[in-house]
Amino acid sequence: MAGQKGRVLNPNTFGCFLGVLSTLLILGSITPLWAFSFLPSSAHQDITGRALSNRAAAQPFQATLSDGSILTFSNRAFQDIFDANLKTDSNMNDKKRHFDDETLVLGSLYLINQKNEHIIKRLKAAGSARNGAEASEARRLLGTTLHTIQDYYSHTTWLELQQAANQTPRIDMRLGRTRLSAPPSGVDTCENDLSTLVPTSNALTSGYFQDSFSCPDIDSSGQRCAHGALFGCSGINKDHGGRPGFTAASQLAIKATEDYVEQVLQQLSGNDEAIKLLMVGEDDIFRLDPARPFTTSINRDQPLDLIETSYFIENNLEQSTVNYSISSNVTWLNFFPSESGDLDEDENREIRVRINGNATLLDPGAYTATVQFSGADTLLERTIQLNVTGDSGPGGPPPLPVE
């Protein structure tokens, strides 16, 4: 904003600041102090976990497929979202991602564009092609966007305006759906301390963020609010437990996180493949180990020894049972304990693939079999390589003399 300049940390306090900062780092308390803002922190972790993850929420976030199946976020899918959410704080210069500096218009347009033009389109494309990498990128974009949603309730005066009107705090249903309006220009929104709202302004605004250790002096037309810094000014942020409104803002951020993901799911309604890739992740629905090919050999002219290899299949489709089946393109393999079955949530099972007597009927040479494991609309393949020899080389034993 034109006409603003930085109010830098007083040099006389710098030595004191270093001592305090060192103490905070030693005690490990700097993370919760700046929960929503410029450091990756426990508050975003807590908000995202309570909203989406079955590990942190009393009632996990759920999605329902066309057949009535209920999904929750798998650990892997949640981690993709969670990691991207925290990394968003590594870029504080993109003000709209944090709703800083009164970027209400740009921030609201960012939420709409991310959802419609990036997250939804990527998930639909991933669902059509069963592209796990594309789905992972969509989850990363979702995590970044959820950070912006969460910062809205910490960095703007949305909560304060409701409290001033004696209203029960509620989320802003415009986010992700419509564009917000810019704060009025030339109107004072904060008092001289840069952190106390002008009672008569009734303006939805957000604070100006310069850096972690200073805050702006406002000398422009209309006195605006500061975001706040560790030292220098408190601002209007609700970033940590010591700030007024932190708990209420956190609760709104949890509900708004759920609402934004619901918006995504509503636009994916009927596209079960895309929903599965968002909620679970391609590899997590039906996991199969090991991945390496199995190679073995037999002599067709000698008794067949017991030759088998094991695969471990796992169902990570939470709160659902997976029906699986196993097949191959050859007749010289058998599967134990069976060629099909059910896997309950988080259940894993050993499947043994055994060379059978049909292998002794093969001519000497090299053979390759493809074994297919299918379940939860996921198809995984493994390769078995068999080398067949005879007692007297490739042609087998010499013919018996004719009597």
Strand order of the largest sheet: 6-13-12-8-10
- Integer average pLDDT: 81
Residue share in helix = 25-40%
Distance between the termini: 108 Å
Number of helices: 10
Which sheet architecture does the biggest sheet show?
A: 5 strands, mixed
* Shape, per Cα inertia axes: elongated
Summing up helix and strand content along with how strands pair, one would put the structural category as alpha+beta
- Count of individual beta strands: 13
Report on the architecture of this protein:
- By secondary structure, the chain is of the alpha+beta class.
- It has 2 domains: 4-280, no CATH class; 284-389, Sandwich (Immunoglobulin-like).
- Helix content is 33%, strand content 19%.
- The chain has helices at residues 14-27, 30-33, 42-52, 75-87, 104-129, 132-155, 158-164, 246-267, 272-279, 282-285, and strands at 4-7, 62-64, 70-72, 215-218, 286-289, 294-299, 308-315, 322-328, 333-336, 340-343, 348-355, 365-375, 378-389.
- β2 and β3 (70-72) form a beta hairpin.
- α3 runs antiparallel to α4 and α5 runs antiparallel to α6 (132-155).
- The longest helix is centred in the first third of the chain and has 26 residues, at 104-129.
- It starts with a strand and ends in a 14-residue tail after the last strand.
- 36% of the residues are buried.
- The model is unreliable at 1-35 and 395-403 (pLDDT under 50).
